[in-house]
User: Which sequence fits this backbone?
């Protein structure tokens, strides 16, 4: 099992949601607990809704990799990682099961209370590494666990795409260097069936409604 000590000045404030992206639960479990894999996570939730607590959240797990969100870099330092069993885009991406949503909802409720985590800080791997990661992906519906990540007040101001990407939470370096991947990450968040980087009028409207809801 890979883990590190948390630094005293870096407190847990995010929950990062992932999918395992592996063919079986067993292979995912083994990889996440194998020291030579260079990855780990705090929790794994199977399709049957079983929650495996792989690492105590007081330690740092290695789930996020190179990552940035808002003004933070290396999100492992600030987060708890939850892996959802799903074959992922490479091996047959499926809908998440009802039992998975139900267990995830309970787990997040528990973590929110214990670590004072805000809804806006429940984030996706594809948000914090948009140029590298696609998980949990467009088939993950955060509303099914009763979370609304955004509660900006609607205004009459017209926002540019860059301003909306910043409000969504992307780190400035991603907006500047990987904008098309940021747009694709937002489309996953919007549960679009087709993920591309086009900025249609419908997308701009949907994006506005997502962050000003
Ligand atoms: Zn991931």
Assistant:
């Amino acid at each position: 099992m890979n883990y590190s000590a948390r630094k005293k000045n870096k407190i847990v404030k995010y929950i990062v949601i992932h999918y395992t992206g592996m063919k079986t639960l067993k292979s995912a479990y083994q990889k996440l607990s194998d020291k030579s894999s260079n990855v780990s996570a705090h929790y794994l939730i199977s399709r049957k809704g079983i929650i495996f607590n792989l690492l105590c959240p007081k330690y740092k797990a290695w789930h996020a990799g190179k990552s940035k969100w808002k003004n933070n870099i290396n999100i492992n330092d600030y987060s708890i990682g939850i892996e959802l069993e799903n074959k992922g885009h490479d091996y047959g991406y499926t809908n998440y099961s009802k039992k998975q949503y139900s267990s995830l909802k309970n787990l997040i409720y528990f973590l929110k209370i214990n670590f004072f985590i805000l809804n806006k800080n429940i984030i996706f791997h594809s948000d914090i590494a948009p140029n590298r990661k696609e998980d949990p992906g467009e088939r993950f519906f955060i509303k099914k666990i009763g979370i609304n990540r955004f509660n900006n007040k609607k205004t009459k101001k017209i926002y540019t795409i860059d301003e909306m990407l910043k409000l969504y939470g992307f780190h400035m370096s991603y907006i500047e260097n990987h904008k098309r991947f940021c747009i694709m990450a937002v489309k996953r968040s919007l549960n679009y069936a087709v993920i591309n980087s086009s900025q249609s009028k419908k997308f701009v409207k949907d994006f506005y409604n997502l962050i000003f809801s």
The longest strand covers residues 14-19. The radius of gyration is 17 Å. The pocket of zinc ion is lined by residues 18, 125, 133, 135 (CB under 6 Å). The chain has a mean pLDDT of 96.
